[in-house]
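Minutes, project huddle
Topic: does the predicted pose make sense with zinc ion bound?
PN asked that the exact inputs be recorded in the minutes so nobody has to dig through chat later. Recorded below.
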Amino acid sequence: MWETAKKQYADMGVDAEKALALVAEIPVSMHCWQGDDVTGFEGNASLDGGIQATGNYPGKARTFDELTADFDKACALIPGKKRINLHASYAVFENGEHPDRDQLEPKHFKAWVEFAKARGIGVDFNPTFFSHPKASGLTLSNPDESIRSFWIRHAIACRRIAAYFAKELHTPCLCNVWIPDGLKDVPADRLSPRLLLKDSLDQIFAEKLDGVVDCVESKLFGIGLEAYTVGSNEFYVAYAASHPGVYTLLDSGHYHPTEVISDKIPSLLCYFDKVPLHVSRPMRWDSDHVVRLDDELKEIASEIVRNDAIDKVMIGLDFFDASINRVAAWVLGTRSMEKALLYALLLPHDRLKELQKNRQYTELFAVQEELKTMPFGAVWDEYCTRQGMPKNWLAEVQAYENTVLKARNN
Ligand code: RNT
Ligand code: ZN
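Predicted holo structure (tokens), as shared on screen:
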């Protein structure tokens, strides 16, 4: 089937061998927080900040050892090159120490560096501005200077930890600032919090750090924060555009329901040499459903591939579903991303662009539809085989559930 498929793609002007070689090298940053519903290791009972992981599937990871074991299990069932994306709330403390978030140091992430080194993967990082007593109201836009400065110190500490990851692992570390700051109901002042946020960011990014790629993640609304979000799209795009070295991250769930990030990628590529992503799947709201191989995911991947932006777009995932097996969720979502990238690499982009340029819209429409029934599945299977994937990954997750997850009793 692979040989036949390869020939069929060749007839379309597509080199399927080349696609297989390319897809295996595109790094996808897998978020650690799918493994434990964004709980972290600080003993937090509940998740706040306007985000929610719904469901209570048994077997959630509670410790560094459990989370990393689950992550390894998932990775063994996903083809392609991975990175791991961590939150500051996943610091690993020793000797009974319990530093607050503004006191975090590289040494609190030594275990993660060792983990990443042993697997030859890079690390990305996020300061954690939620699930903390000082995050019950505003963080970086708080008019209370003692609270705002606490969070500025936290972000500065996190950037230094990101620099440590980059140095130790010899690969740049994306350090992403997302804050939940906003209001439930109609504000009287939308400007002042944004000016405070702007000042906070200026303080946070003042230090030049090698290997750190800074970015800011905008959002439309959160649960309980429906009326106003301080870190809006326009605010952060303008901030990044006017601050060289700071990028703006696109999360699929952070826009109006019919608005898509695939269209925003080429817009940002006109101005930025890096475009970080949080690929997620919103359903009616920023629900962070596990990513499926749907039209928008294919379009996201196509914008990366057809604009020669594989080295510019930094693909990270951001979903958390507590209603299904969490290891399976990681595998499903990440495999969907891999599938979309391979799918996009198998499209005859030059030919399609030419049709658009020549205003041959009928032919363009026809070819686009023909492409949908090409033997993509055979190429995907070949990719999985070459990457040493088992035939039935779900059976492996189910066995892991029976032997490991069920013993956790949580
Ligand atoms: C929240 C943002 C943010 C978080 C993670 C846990 O809406 O998408 O990226 O999901 O940082
Ligand atoms: Zn996100």
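Observations noted during the meeting:
- The longest strand covers residues 82-87.
- The chain has 14 helices and twelve strands.
No decisions taken; revisit at the next huddle.
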